[in-house]
Structures are given as structure tokens and as C-alpha cells.
């Protein structure tokens, strides 16, 4: 039986997509450098062994088996893993990306391992209709800047007050430069991972900053690298970028909710962000990853603050099909439909982009068709919601200036 609502189906399954948050593909020579189960789970180490027993994995195996033409005993997770490595890499990328209808990707290139193993951002343009753009991950840039300063002055270490002034000046200068860079369309914070989303809007004391930078300096000497996990410093850097983002009118994305065991679940709800959202009314906040399992908290914030938007990404393919539909229902309970965005949050493999879009298109059609059938929406309204969520809202807030390429897919 064909779709009950033809125009809604046409939009849901064929309207072009702006992927407002993703990470680059692995280079061909690195295509098997990361454990494949990362594809369907945020678990790490031994906990990742259990991911193959989840509904998301069973579904991913079935959908990828169909894509790869696997049948019978070969249509398994192990069969998928074996077949993908036998395919020519360029053909694999084309096979996965052509059915997505993704027209433009906004890349966060601050994920660990990208510099060493992943393709450059605009390498991906061959699989999309519009040039890729960059999202700047502020904590990683801060770490790199501080590390460079410390290494450059290793033979004659700076006093902590001079180090603080030098670092903050260079960090601010760099972020101001990105504000003028047309390739950069937004910022990203992983405060959720580092010190929690309860970002203090009050000014940070100089003594606190000095202590944090001294601790980071020791970390470099002992471990050979820096990872910001000092709350006063993290909060201070976030506030610097929030101010810059507000002035240049580029959104700032925040990881919220769904993540690995590096986050503290109780401080990963965007509800903790209410004070900082109030403190920066001119800055556009994008709450990433559906804020799962705190989707309703995120929807509430989008409904009462003009400057808050909600991305319903990453749940594809990380949670079950029923769970995905439930999340979209929760998003639509309260969030204005002109303030919802979509992303894959895909990383490393083109298969992630494929599954994320296939599953998202199915879920949004099923949810909106349900509302239409109950006469809670007209079909025209449902079509409008699809177009806003997949393309129009991201095009507007990131100032991409794109026209939807409606011929990118055939319904």
C-alpha cells in the first residue's frame, strides 16, 4: 500500500536536507580504524560489546543489508561489516549518500581523531549539492591555543598572570577571527561533557582562572596534552564565545543529553542552561541531540525563549524506531515548528548518514501522518513542518542563503 498522504510523503521522503551537525568521514586508509559498533551506540570499551543486542543494531543490520543487497544468512551485522570492507570506498560513499538527499552539511571538526584520520570538510562536497560549512568547537580550540603557548614558552615559563592574559587574548582573537570567516557558520560547546550544563553566568574571578590554568599546565607536563575540565575556566570560555556569537549572529550549539559515559547524566539536561540563556538574549542557542532523554525540557525552553532552538538529531540510529517517534512527538508537544532543526550527528562512516536520514524520514512521516489522520494538522501544515525542520529553519538561522534543490531525490 502506498502512502496515505501523497504530498506529505513527497516532502518527508524527498525534500532536501541541511544536516546542521555532523563530523567528517574517515579517510579510505582509515576506514577500519575505529570499531564499527560505535556506529550504533555511545557505549565505550567493554560496554560496546552489548550494543549488537539492541533494537537499533538489529534494525541497522536489516536496513544496511538491504542497501548492500545481502540476503539470508549474510543479512547480519557481521555480514554488513564484512561486505562494507569489500566495497570500493568511493562506491560505498556514493551508495550511502545518494539516497539521503542531504544538500549541505555543517561539520564540527573538533571530535578527537579527526585531524589524524578524517577527510577535509570540503572533500565531502562531491556528495552534496552545496559547499560544506564549519562549526567551531570552542573547548578544543582553547586547548590547542593554550598548549601552543605553553610549549612555545617551555624553556622560560610564563608567570600564571601573564599566561592567563596571553591565553585569553589569543583565544578571544581567534574566536573574533572565526566570526568574520564565511566558512564558519556557528560554534559548538561540549560543556556538557566537561563540567556540566549548569554554566555560571556570573563573572569568573581572576584567582579561579589562575588556578585552572595552572592545573592545565601541570596536565600538559604529566600527560602530554590538555583537556579542559576545570569549571571556572570552561564557563568563562563559553561566555566569551556566547558574547561573540551574539554580536556576529552565528548560532552556538550545545551538546545536551545523549552521550557516552563521560557525561554526568544529571547535569546534561538543558534545563540547567536557563540562567545562561537568560544572560545572553541576543545569542542563538541550538540544543543538540534531541536533549534525549530530556527532550521535553528542551521543547519547553524553545517555547519560552526566542533565542533557543532544538535539534532532533543523533537519535537516528541510536534509539529504537518507536523511541524515535516518541521523541518527535515530545518535540512537537510544545516547540514552535519554526525552531526545530535536524542533524545526523554522523561521524566516520557514510553509513551513519544513510541510516540517520532514512530513519528520520520514516519517523517524521509516520508521526505527522498520524496527526493529519486525527485532524490535528492539515496535510499542508504537515508538509510545511517537514520543510522547516529539514531545511528552512537551518538555512535561516545559519544564514546559508541556499535554495532547496528539490530535484536531489525522486519521491
TrEMBL record:
The Amidohydrolase-related domain covers which part of the protein? 243-400
Which domain of life does this protein belong to? Eukaryota
- Pfam family membership, one: Amidohydro_2
Gene3D superfamilies given for it?
A: Metal-dependent hydrolases (3.20.20.140)
Among the GO molecular function terms of this UniProt record, one is: hydrolase activity
Q: This chain belongs to which protein, by name?
A: Amidohydrolase-related domain-containing protein
The scientific name of the source species is Rhizopogon vesiculosus
* Lineage of producing organism: Eukaryota, Fungi, Dikarya, Basidiomycota, Agaricomycotina
Amino acid at each position: 500500500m502506498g502512502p496515505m498522504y501523497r504530498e506529505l510523503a513527497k516532502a518527508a521522503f524527498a525534500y532536501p536536507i541541511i544536516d546542521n551537525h555532523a563530523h567528517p568521514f574517515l579517510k579510505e586508509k582509515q576506514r577500519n580504524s575505529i570499531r564499527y559498533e560505535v556506529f550504533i551506540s555511545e557505549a565505550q570499551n567493554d560496554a560496546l560489546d552489548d550494543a549488537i543486542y539492541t533494537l537499533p543494531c538489529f534494525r541497522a543490520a536489516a536496513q544496511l543489508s538491504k542497501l548492500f543487497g545481502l540476503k539470508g544468512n549474510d543479512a547480519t551485522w557481521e555480514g554488513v561489516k564484512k561486505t562494507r570492507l569489500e566495497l570500493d570506498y568511493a562506491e560505498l560513499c556514493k551508495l550511502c549518500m545518494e539516497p539521503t538527499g542531504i544538500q549541505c552539511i555543517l561539520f564540527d571538526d573538533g571530535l578527537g581523531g579527526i585531524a589524524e584520520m578524517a577527510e577535509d570538510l570540503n572533500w565531502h562536497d562531491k556528495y552534496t549539492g552545496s559547499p560544506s560549512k564549519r562549526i567551531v568547537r570552542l573547548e578544543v580550540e582553547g586547548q590547542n591555543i593554550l598548549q601552543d603557548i605553553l610549549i612555545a614558552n617551555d624553556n622560560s615559563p610564563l608567570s600564571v598572570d601573564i599566561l592567563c592574559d596571553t591565553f585569553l587574548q589569543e583565544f578571544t582573537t581567534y574566536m573574533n577571527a572565526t566570526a568574520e570567516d564565511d566558512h564558519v557558520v556557528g560554534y559548538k560547546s561540549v560543556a556538557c561533557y566537561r563540567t556540566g550544563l549548569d554554566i555560571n553566568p556570573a563573572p569568573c574571578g581572576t584567582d579561579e582562572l589562575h588556578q585552572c590554568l595552572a592545573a592545565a599546565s601541570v596536565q600538559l607536563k604529566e600527560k602530554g596534552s590538555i583537556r579542559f575540565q576545570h569549571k571556572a575556566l570552561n564557563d568563562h570560555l563559553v561566555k566569551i564565545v556566547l558574547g561573540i556569537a551574539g554580536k556576529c549572529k552565528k548560532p552556538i550549539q550545545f551538546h545536551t543529553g545523549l552521550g557516552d559515559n563521560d557525561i554526568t547524566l544529571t547535569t546534561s539536561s538543558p534545563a540547567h542552561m536557563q540562567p545562561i540563556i537568560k544572560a545572553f538574549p541576543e545569542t542563538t542557542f541550538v540544543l543538540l541531540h534531541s536533549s534525549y532523554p530530556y527532550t521535553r525540557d528542551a521543547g519547553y525552553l524553545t517555547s519560552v525563549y526566542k533565542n533557543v532552538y532544538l535539534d532532533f538529531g543523533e537519535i537516528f540510529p541510536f534509539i529504537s524506531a518507536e523511541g524515535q517517534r516518541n521523541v518527535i512527538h515530545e518535540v512537537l508537544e510544545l516547540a514552535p515548528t519554526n525552531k526545530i532543526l535536524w542533524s545526523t550527528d554522523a561521524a566516520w562512516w557514510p553509513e551513519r548518514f544513510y541510516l540517520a536520514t532514512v530513519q528520520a524520514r520514516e519517523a517524521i512521516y509516520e508521526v505527522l501522518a498520524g496527526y493529519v489522520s486525527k485532524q490535528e494538522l492539515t496535510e499542508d501544515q504537515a508538509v510545511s513542518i517537514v520543510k522547516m525542520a529539514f531545511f528552512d529553519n537551518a538555512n535561516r538561522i545559519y544564514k546559508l542563503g541556499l535554495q532547496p534543490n528539490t530535484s536531489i531525490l525522486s519521491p
